[in-house]
Specification:
Helix content is about 45%, strand content about 20%. By secondary structure, the chain is of the alpha/beta class. It has two domains: about 230 residues, Periplasmic binding protein-like II (D-Maltodextrin-Binding Protein, domain 2, 3-Layer(aba) Sandwich), CATH 3.40.190.10; about 110 residues, Periplasmic binding protein-like II (D-Maltodextrin-Binding Protein, domain 2, 3-Layer(aba) Sandwich). A seven-stranded mixed sheet has the order 2-3-4-1-5-14-6, sandwiched between helices. Strands 10-11-9-12-8-13 form a six-stranded mixed sheet, with helices on both faces. α12 crosses α13. The longest helix is centred in the C-terminal third of the chain and has 20 residues.
């Protein structure tokens, strides 16, 4: 980490040095702030990658944009011709790894799962969710050759099979795992994380990595897994797994539709110290989300370029994800579903353990800059009202 920070410092010095003009500087001009942005690297967070890869498109339209300094790592954040920030992108692991990096002071802004961010905020970490990124895009996958082809046959196999089904998940706070646990409870299927539990009809196995499903399926260490895209599409592409259900369709009926998954979060200090830069970044994410919604071909191309997955994988993945950057009523409702689920599963141990859904939203979310970004883009004509 120290070597990367040193490299970033050299890049910053070079960029700021190259940007010095021979003309006298306006005393009111200040140097751009330096912010570190953490992401997981998969296509649930595609809006950030589209903003980075399509910066020239937004620049030509006289919109806020990201200018590449070092591919995939360093970008200038520019609005109205002014460099507001120098952004350093850092790929971190999924689950709790992103908010853990924020806790260590390694990140100012982080893209990751709402459940993981909320769990850290529950412990008292000064984090806020400032913008949604997408909903859905989580699947139940079974090994190729399995007789299970849909949720009904999964329930039947779990309840009546000769042995428990072994289902992998990425991390304890992974959204897909939490939805799946809720569905198992709704279907009356006993489950456990202890393989020795004789009452369990589903054994949950922590795979601890996005790369684990393929070897575990191949070795038959698991019968299937629940996870986000694109690892699901990768398993299908390699003919090791098949999708038997989208988690949005699991019971209770309608509860998981448009379930919030990834979001943009930030430390309170970042929001207090650099609101203009954060708002400009949110504008880039909002504009990129609009491009994803309007031009799926470009979205798929960007996803493949950034994730390095074959285009065929992203063709299967991107259309299953609902990208949005606006805190809609539906998204707020989904967030309230989350707090209830996490309370029911005993995930929260701190201030959120008994909080009401409305007060949870007030505490975990800081959506003012996102709303302002939307309003300013609409007023400028960049977005339709």
């Amino acid at each position: 980490m120290k070597s990367k920070m040193l490299l970033f410092s050299f890049i910053v010095i070079a960029v700021l040095g190259c940007n010095k003009s021979s003309q006298p500087q306006d005393p009111s001009d200040s140097a751009p702030v330096m912010l570190t942005v953490g992401h997981v690297g998969h296509d649930h967070q595609l809006a950030l990658f589209v903003a980075a890869l399509e910066g020239e498109r937004f620049k030509k339209a006289s919109l806020p944009y990201l200018k590449e300094v070092k591919p995939r790592e360093v970008y200038e954040l520019i609005e109205n011709g002014k460099k507001l920030a120098l952004l350093r992108f850092v790929k971190v692991g999924g689950g709790s790894r992103m908010p853990a990096a924020m806790t260590r002071g390694e990140l100012d802004i982080g893209l990751g799962g709402v459940a993981a961010v909320a769990k850290f905020a529950d412990k008292g970490q000064p984090f806020k969710i400032i913008c949604p990124l997408q909903t859905d895009g989580d699947m139940l996958v079974m090994r190729t050759g399995s007789e299970i082809n849909d949720w009904d046959s999964f329930v039947a196999a779990a309840k009546n099979g000769k042995r428990p089904l072994k289902i992998g998940y990425k991390a304890p706070t992974a959204v897909a795992k939490l939805v799946f646990v809720g569905a198992l409870k709704s279907a009356g299927i006993p489950f456990s994380q202890n393989p020795a539990d004789k009452n369990a009809r589903v054994v949950l196995i922590n795979m601890m990595s996005e790369k684990s499903p393929l070897p575990l399926l191949e070795s038959q260490a698991i019968d299937g897994f629940v996870m986000h895209q694109p690892p699901v599409a990768v398993a299908v592409h390699k003919k090791l797994g098949k999708v038997v259900a989208e988690l949005r369709d699991l019971p209770p009926n309608g509860k998981w539709v448009d379930h919030p998954c990834c979001c943009v979060s930030a430390t309170v200090k970042t929001l207090e110290d650099h609101p203009d830069a954060v708002k400009a970044l949110l504008k880039c994410i909002i504009l990129a989300t609009k491009l994803i919604q309007d031009n799926q071909g470009t979205a798929i191309d960007c996803a493949s370029r950034w994730t390095k997955n074959p285009r065929e994988v992203e063709v299967m993945s991107v259309p299953t994800i609902s990208y949005l950057a606006e805190p809609t009523d539906s998204w707020i409702s989904g967030m309230k579903t989350w707090v209830t689920l996490m309370q029911d599963t005993g995930t929260f141990k701190g201030k959120y353990a008994t909080i009401s859904p409305d007060n949870f939203i007030k505490d975990i979310c800081s959506l003012e800059l996102c709303k302002q970004a939307y309003e300013e883009l609409q007023s400028s004509g960049a977005l339709k009202k």
